[in-house]
Amino acid sequence: MLDWTDRHYRYMARQISRHTWLYTEMIHAGAVVHGDALRFLNFSPIEMPLALQLGGSEPSKLAAAAKIAAEFGYNEINLNCGCPSPKVQKGAFGACLMNNVDLVAHCLNAMQDAVSIPISIKHRIGVDKQTEYQPLADFVGTLRRKTACRIFIVHARNAWLNGLSPKENREIPPLRYDYVYRLKREFPDLEIIINGGISTNAQIAEHLQHTDGVMIGREAYHNPMLMRDWDYLFYGSEHTPISHEELIHTLHAYAADQLIQNNSTILRHMVRHYLGLLHGQTGARRWRQILSDSRLQDNNADLILTAWNTAQPPL
Ligand SMILES: Cc1cc2nc3c(=O)[nH]c(=O)nc-3n(C[C@H](O)[C@H](O)[C@H](O)COP(=O)(O)O)c2cc1C
What we know:
Mean pLDDT: 96
Helix content: 40-55%
Shape: globular
Strand order of the largest sheet: 1-2-3-4-5-6-7
CATH topology of the largest domain: TIM Barrel
Radius of gyration: 20 Å
Distance between the termini: 38 Å
Order of helices and strands: HEHHEHEHHEHEHEHEHHHHHH
Bound molecules: flavin mononucleotide
Structural class: alpha/beta
CATH architecture of the largest domain: Alpha-Beta Barrel
Low-confidence stretches: none
Number of strands: 7
Number of helices: 15
CATH class of the largest domain: Alpha Beta
């Protein structure tokens, strides 16, 4: 998620769930090809399995970016056809690509020809006033026929390209989970992953009755410990889920190490992702306060332990 997630978030997420697939925020293909690829693409193997999401609409550039990304070791490359932001529309990529399925097919084919890892797509159920099921099925059906893409992540609401902010575009257009379920029924050979407004494990379990997977965005950010049960609930793992105590000590060690290793890393870059770790628990407010107060500027990772010890209820 742009401006929210980064490698520090993914490190934390991977401590909480060993098996969940993680996706990067969208990175523009041009930035990878013409910019500092190392800065945009570098990740720690611990984050894997990890997919890179690319934005763009120029097949040759997407192919070049995909090739570079595959060399970095990503497990999957995803094409963003769901972002409605005005800036992204101006660049003629993201959700507005849903209006040009042939160009999307061209992009996906160019990417797939460049790499041997899977290519996937993330899209909406429609754009603007296009709210019927059939055009969505035609979009997916065309891509199935014309490309080798078999993984479709579907944000189950329309993108309104005019008049709504990106935030409103995640809240106002109605959710149509039934459309996504129907896609799975009509295209059983495709891997259909549902996304949008899902926030509990019970909801995930219900969606898995109808689809192959569930993508969680905001809830996994604001309440990361939601992911703690996923390995045993959804991946059959027998490992004991990580405790807060263990996680926080691991994150303390990680943050201390990052501060030593990398001069440009500051404590805030990491702890901003930790604020939701005590979501719904006693001491959550104290935890967030300490991790946001002026002591952050000292860049001493021990602040994480101070916050944890202070947030604990007295025995
Ligand atoms: C701050 C923010 C940034 C986002 N950035 C991206 C992005 O880079 N790529 C993408 O495919 N979706 C992005 N999204 C959308 C989410 O991936 C997701 O589709 C949407 O929030 C609905 O799912 P949720 O209800 O589980 O959050 C972003 C969402 C938020 C809140």
